[in-house]
Amino acid sequence: MKPTVLSLLLTFLSTVCLAQTGSVQGLVKDAKTKEALIGCTVRIDGTQIGATTDIDGKFTLANVPAGTQKVVISYVSYQTKEIPNVRVESGNTTTIDTELDEEGKSLQEVVVRANRATNTEVAVITEIKQLKPLAVGISAQQIQKSQDRDAAAAIRRVPGISIVDNRFVLIRGLGTRYNSVLINDVITPSTEVESRSFSFDIVPSNILDRMIVYKSGAAELPGDFAGGVIKIYTKRRPDQNFTDVGFTIGYRPGTTFRTAQTHDRGGLSVLGLWNKDQQIPTSFPARANDFNALNAAQRAGYARLLPNSWGLRQVSIAPDVRLAINMGRRFDLGNTRVSNLTSINYSLTNQYADIDLSIYQNGATANDVFERYDDANYQRQTRLGVLHNWTFRFNPRFTLEWKTLFNLLSSTETLNRMGQRVIDGVDVQAFSERFENRSIVSTQVSGEHSLSELSKFNWIGAYSYSGRWEPDWKRARFQRQSDSGQPFAAVIPNQPNPIDNGRFFSTLNENVVSLIGNYEHTFGNPTDREPNRIKAGIYGEQRNRTYSARFYGYERVSNVSQEITSQPINTIFDDRNVTGQPGGLSLLDGTKDLDSYEGINTYGAAYVQGDVNLGSRLNLTLGFRGEFNNQTLRSDINLVRTDLVDRSIFSPLPSLNAIYKLNDRQNLRLAYSATVNRPELRELAPFTYFDFNLLADVRGNPSLTTATIQNIDAKYEFYPTPNEVISVTGFVKQFSNPIETFLLPTANGLGYTFINARSARNYGVEIEVRKSFANASSVFLQNLQLVGNASFINSRIDLGQTVIGPDLSGRIGPYDLTNIQSAERPLANQSPYLINAGAYYADPVSGWQANVLYNVAGPRIFAVGNQNQPTVFEMARNVVDLNISKTFKKQYEVRLGIQDILNAPFRFAQDYNDDGKIGKDVSSLNATADQNVRVFRRGQYVTLTGVYTFGRRTIVP
C-alpha cells in the first residue's frame, strides 16, 4: 500500500509542478521597416528556455516557470533588448509584441538583413507548419547540400515524390498529368508534345529559393490536380552584393572518353540551336496532296533541297562541363531600395547507354522472341539558362517585382539499332538521328501592397512561352536475311511510315497570358496568436498552342537497283540517287491534315476562403473555388477550318482544412477538397505521334472528358525543434472518369491512346522524419542531420465494360473490354512504395560538408497492356548518392559528387503471366515468364565543382 500511496503522491506533486508553468509568445519586428524578423533569439534570462522567431517573426516559449521573468531578445546587427517584469501565470499565455532597433553605423562589417529568409531549412519547415493545406517542401539550403543539378533531381528528396525519365515528377505515384506546376505562383505550360507534363530538368538548381508541394487542396490553389500542386520559387533578392562563379567537370564511366557515333547539327548546337538548312524549305508545297500530285522527278527535285546529313561520325566523348555565374546587387534610388539578382547557367553533358530491347510474340510459349535488338544510344545535351529579377521596394507598404526566367535545352540523340526480326529470319540495322530543342520563357510583373496593418493585396501580370522543335528527325531501316553474309539493304516501302526511311519535322509553340489578384484581410486575435483571415482572389489565363508536323518518306521509282539500296546511310540518299528517274529514289509526303492543329484554352477562376477559430486550439479554413474552362481544338481538313473540340465546363470546388493544436509543437490536420483533371490539348488532338525508342504510336482522343476527384487527407505532425519534424499522413482519393492510357487492340505493333475509365481509387500513408542533434554533447552529432521519408500506396482503376476511344485510322467508337483487357488494375505509373533517406553533415567551423542520400521507387506500370500484349512494369532501382564539399576562407568552395553509386539497371519487364507482378513462372522449365523488354545502365556520375566568390560587400540601410 505504501508504494502505491507514494506513487500517487509523486504523480500529484509532478502534476502540481507542471501546472506552475505558463507560456510566453509574441512577435518581433524591425523598428524602422516594421517587417517581421526571422531568426531572432528569444530566451528567459537565467534559464535554458529559448526559441527563435519563425518566418513571420513569431515565437513561443513553453514551460516557463510562473512568476516575474526577464525576456531577452537578440539578433545580429540589432541592439539586444531586455524586457523585465514579464508576468507569467500558471496555465496561461503571456503575449509580447516588440521591435528591435538597428545597431549603430560602427558595425559596418555586419550585413543588415531587412528581408525575411525563405530559403533555409528552418524557414521552409516553418512555412509548411503555418500553411493551412497539407504540404511538404525542400529549401535551397538542402538542395545545395545534396548538389542536385536541377529541380527534377532535387524534388525527389521530398516525401511521396518519384521521378520518371529523370525529369517528370510523380506525386504519390500518380502520373504527371495529375500535377499542377507553378513558377512564382503562375501556372506553367506543358513542355511536352505527346503528354501533359512539365519537364523539371529545365530549371537549374542554383536559381531555386524553395519548392513547396501541396498535397491537399485549398480555394487559393489551382483545382486541376490529384497528386499535388508544386510551387517553384526562384530566388528573389539578395541580402548583400556578391558575384559567384562555379565550374563543374563531370565524368561518367561507360560514357566519358569512349567512342560513339553521332550526327552533325551544326556549330550552333552547343548553344541548343540548329542550322537553317535543317528546316523545310519554304518552297515546299504546304499540303501532302499537292506535293504527292507532282511527278516523281519533281518530288525528287524538292528532296534534293534537303541536305544529305545522314552520315554518322565517330567521336570520343569528352567530360561534361557546367558553368554558373551568379550576381546580386542592392542599392538605393532616393527612398527606393532596388535589388537585382542575375544567374546564368550553361551545361554540356553526355550520356551513352547500351540498351537491350526485346519484343515477344506472347503466345502460349514463354520467352518466344519476335524481335531482339541492341540499341547503342548516345545523347549530347546542352542547357542555357538565365534568371534575371528586379525588386523595387518603394516603402514598407509597396514592393514591385519583375522576374524573368529563360531556359533553352537541346538534345542530340543518335540511336544505332542492331538485331533481328526472329520470326522473319532477317537481321535489322536501324538508325534514329534526332535533335530536340525545348525552350521556355517566363516574365512577370507583380506588386505587393499593404493597404493597412490588417489588409494586403497582391497582383501578377505574366506572359510565358514554351516551344519545342524537332527539325529533320531522320529514321532509317536496313535488313538482310540472317546468316546470309549479304550486305544490308534499305527498306523502301510503297507508302511512307514512321519506322522506315524518312524525315520528320515538328514545331510546337505555346503562348500564355495570365492575370492574378489576391486580397487578404486579417481580423486581430491576440489571445491565441492565430488571427482569423479571409482571402479572395481571381486567376485568368489564356493559352494558345499551335502544333504542326510534317513527315516525308523515300520511295522507289520502278525497280531500284541493289547497288543503291545497299549503299551505307551516308550516301544512299545522296543527290545522285534521289533522281526521281526509273531505278532511283524519290520522296513522298506522308503528312495528314490532322498532324497539325491549333488549340486554345481559356481558364478563369475565382475563390474565397476564410479562417474560423473555434477556441485557441482548433482552426478551420473553409473555401470555395469556381473554375471555368473552355478548350477549343481546330485543324484544317481538306482546306476547311474544322472545330474538332469546343467544350466548356464549370467546376465548383469546395475545400476544408482543419488544424487541431495538441500543443505548441504538435498538430492534427484533416483536409477535404474536390479537384478536377482536365484533358490536355495534345491528348484531345486526334493525330498519331511515333515513339521510335519504344516502337509505338500514340494517338489523341477528342472524346475525352474532365475527371473529378474527391480527396481526404489526415496528418499528425510534431515539431520537436525549429528544424525537426515527425509526421504521419494518410490519404484517400476517389476518381470519377479518370484519364488513363489505353493499349489499342491492333494486329501489328503497339498503339496507345487516352480514355476515360469508369472510376479509380488511391489510398496510402506517408511518414517523414527530420532529426538533428543540436543539444548533443558530441560536436560531430551537433553537426549531423538525418532525413527520411517513406510512402506506401495502393491504387485500383475500374475501366468498366466499355471505353470510348479512336482506332489508328481515327474513327471514334466503343471498345468492349471483354477478352481485350482486364477491367481492373493499378493506376499507370503508381509505385506501391517510395523511400528517401539522407544523412547530412555540416561543420560551420572547418567548412566541411558531406551527405549520403538514398532513393527508391517501387515497381510501376510503364505501359498498359491487354490480353495480347502484357503490361510492362518499370522495376525498382536503388539509388545512392554521395556528396562532399569544403569551403576555404569563405571565398573558395570545392564540391565532389558521386551519384548513382550502385549503378542499378533500368529494367522494364512485361507481366507475361498476368499476375500483376514481375516474377518467375514455376510451371515452365526454368523459363522466366515475366520477360525483360528494355534493360540498360546509365553508369555512375562523378562531378568536381569549384566555386569562387568575388567578395561580399556590406549593404548600409
UniProtKB/TrEMBL annotation:
Protein name, UniProt field: TonB-dependent receptor
Domain called TonB-dependent receptor plug: residue spans: 138-228
Annotated keywords: Cell outer membrane, Membrane, Receptor, Signal, TonB box
Record's subcellular location: Cell outer membrane
Similarity-based family: Belongs to the TonB-dependent receptor family.
Residue span, TonB-dependent receptor-like beta-barrel domain: 425-899
Aminoacyl-tRNA synthetase as UniProt keyword: no
PANTHER family in the cross-refs: PLUG DOMAIN-CONTAINING PROTEIN, TONB-DEPENDENT RECEPTOR-LIKE BETA-BARREL DOMAIN-CONTAINING PROTEIN
Source taxon at top rank: Bacteria
InterPro entries referenced in this protein's UniProt entry, alphabetically: Beta-barrel_TonB, Beta-barrel_TonB_sf, CarboxyPept-like_regulatory, Plug_dom, Plug_dom_sf
A Pfam family reported for this protein in Swiss-Prot or TrEMBL: TonB_dep_Rec_b-barrel
Signal peptide range in chain numbering: 1-19
Cellular component terms (Gene Ontology): cell outer membrane
Species assigned in the record: Spirosoma sordidisoli
